[in-house]
Specification:
It is built from 12 helices and 12 strands. The strands form 2 sheets. Strands 1, 4, 5, 6, 7, 8, 9, 10, 11 and 12 form a 10-stranded mixed sheet that branches. A two-stranded antiparallel sheet has the order 2-3. It has 2 domains: 6-161 and 254-361, Phosphoglycerate mutase-like (Rossmann fold), CATH 3.40.50.1240; 171-252, no CATH class. It has helices at residues 35-42, 48-55, 87-108, 124-137, 164-167, 172-175, 188-199, 209-221, 232-250, 253-275, 290-299, 354-361; strands at 6-16, 26-27, 31-32, 59-61, 116-120, 152-155, 283-288, 302-303, 317-325, 331-337, 340-344, 352-353. The two termini are 37 Å apart. Keywords: Hydrolase.
Length: 367
Amino acid sequence: MPSTDLELRHVVVAFRHGDRSPILPKLGKAIDMDAAERDFWGARLATPEQIAVLDATAKRAGLRKNEPAPTLAPLIGGAWPNGFLTARGVEQMISKGRDLRVRYGSFLQTPSVDDVYVRSTNVVRTIQSGQSVLHGMFPEFVKAVGETPDVEIHLHPTCPLSLGHHMDYHHLSTILKARRHESPVQDIDALEAQVHALVGLDEGEDVQWSFLREILVCRVAHDFPFPPGMSLDVVQQSILHNAWEWHARLSDKAFLAKAFGRGVHEAFGYLSAATQGASEHKLTILSAHDDTLCGLIYAFQLHRPGARFLTPEYGSVLTFELYQSASSGAWFLKANFDGADVYFQGHDDTLCPFAHVQALVQTFPSQ
């Protein structure tokens, strides 16, 4: 179909939050955040000056316009400085916003606040990441520090855009342990024994690969030392194995339907509303987590030829572009992950008929 026949009608932009501090302060005996490490991470979090600018960009709200915001959701790992956006993360997401403005400038033309609807999970790091992207993408919306902004970031008290609680990271590795030899890590038993010893786990205690991965990724990004004796190769193999764990869990359609049905229906609902002429905005922004992007990737059966897994990093962006054919009126979707096209299963063209994705979504419970 010639591109001249297609009109871009709506865009959904979903992204993982920016660079952050580790969530879990303790794992085994070798990873135990002391006062010096707390100070290390505390010194790297978003600065008061940055936060003041972000708070002049967008304000927290409920799901509807001018609705009071819900109480912030509790964080896994607990309190400051764990699991917070870093100063680097703020700048990273501002840059992502600038890139998105370049990418969709002709579609947005001269945007108004009403052209954009912003959702975030009810967590500080995703709210601030959303503010950062908005700051980079819509500098014309930013108020002076201390003034109340017009743009709202809409929050739901139970975070349906995240499936973290259902993933049960504390027990995920134990649940999948019997299948661990499906991992692309060639000798997973040897890696597990090595990591078990290096981290200082108790006898019989399983490695919690998701928590290990999130801690190590933070340490790599900020040049913080690994546990004594742990090499970069061990770190990389641990990250690869955890990517397989997520793949194994999310490939289970029954689990994914139970864990993320509401999230799938919400994300797709913005696109569906646009096909029905019921959307009052042109751009939907979803500021969320790696499990959000993974959930959407697996629910919509997206893949990239040659890529074993599509693994979101800090600031990863997944977009869904909704097109309509001028000649036939038919609707199509196009997906992109981190700057490269991804494909819907069973379709060789980047453009996928909207009805195909609609049928996928209908297999998920909405509640």
